[in-house]
Amino acid sequence: MSESSGVNVLERLAAPESRRNPYPLLRWLRENEPVHRTEAGFFLVSRHADAHWALGNTGDALVVPDREDLARQFPAAASHPAMEVALDGFAAKSKPGYTSLRRMMSRDLARTRVAQVGESIRLRCAQLIDGMAERLHDGEAVDFHQEVSRPLTFEVFAELFGVDGDERHGVSRDVLEVAGGLEAVDEEALKAADAASERVESYFRGVIADRRRSPRDDLMTALVAAHDTDLERPDDKLILGLLWVLWMTGFDSSAAGLDRGMQAILDHPDQLHWLRGDDQQAAAFVEEVLRYDSVILLTPIPRIAARDIEFGDRMLPAGAMARMVIAAANRDPSVFPDPDRFDPSRDNRPTLSMGYGPYYCNGAALVRAEMSIVLTMIHDRFPDLVAAGEPVWTEAIGTANGIRGVDHLPIRMGTAGQ
């Protein structure tokens, strides 16, 4: 059975108290309605075992929606290029050739690019730290999100995808314009997003053409080369679709990961010895950050049930769209004892923070490396940081890209032992 209690979970998730702390609501959802039909018509799957199974069986019992499925769910897309771009990007996941491109990129990121970009992360982080050091030492508050996590993650993405230095500000502004328009679903914002999406797509078509003429040692060149080995691909829509998915989900999620790490530093000073140890200890701290306060609230891409699927005594009917509630699954006590306690010593191998199965996060190695490098550098330079106010959470939570993020995260220097 999958009857609903009448609780509007999406509305409650959007409320200020849930933006600050969704976990009481997610616990209720997991314990009472683990397969919940939302007011929007799609289902939320929140138990760890069910979410794990659903992610692992994508492509079989559950499938990624195609272009027509997404268009039916988002009918307003037809009149807005920005929404068309988003749909095309997500629908590319179901097209032949996308999986091979995605696998190539995952291997490339895991094997070579993360090592190469690690030094860039350290250099850029040091510059950002230097830029705020005097103000922190003078007792001023600094916005970690605006001054560290967002600019740093954008610079890393820009370097990976070959965005030239003098073009980065414009591309960054346009990507954010598109993301903001899609979240707001406001006519004025969508018109601005339409123009921005056309500029971004035009820019990346130029970058793709340039890499064909003059290959470089970057991820864009590798993507173009892998794409062009298949002569049946008539245009560059697959590359552009992959780029949009990465920019719309990876950029924000990477910044949110750094913000979560900083919040853990502020909230759990008794665990900061993990950041003063070796690389393995820092990695354990990062894994617990990702489990304890998940960046991804809901999977951004829904799955469609290819048949009736039973999750215990609950049913996901054939044809239904479902999204896995990663944040609820990562605090399932059947898998993580005492799940509401922050404990980097726990076994975090079962976490679903980076997904599971055929759509495991492309940039998982990059996100983990970025978080380990930045959090250890920040803590080493400023060991006594404290909150300078409450985080300002984004207005839209989890309904579009699945990310629960902040717009502002104020910090300041404290005194030892504070």
From TrEMBL:
Pfam families, A to Z: p450 (PF00067)
SUPFAM superfamilies noted in UniProt: Cytochrome P450 (SSF48264)
Source lineage: Bacteria, Bacillati, Actinomycetota, Actinomycetes, Pseudonocardiales
InterPro entries the UniProt entry points to: Cyt_P450 (IPR001128), Cyt_P450_B (IPR002397), Cyt_P450_sf (IPR036396)
Gene3D superfamilies: Cytochrome P450 (1.10.630.10)
Family: Belongs to the cytochrome P450 family.
PANTHER family found in the cross-reference section: CYTOCHROME P450 YJIB-RELATED, P450, PUTATIVE (EUROFUNG)-RELATED
Superkingdom of origin organism: Bacteria
Protein name: Cytochrome P450
Organism: Pseudonocardia adelaidensis
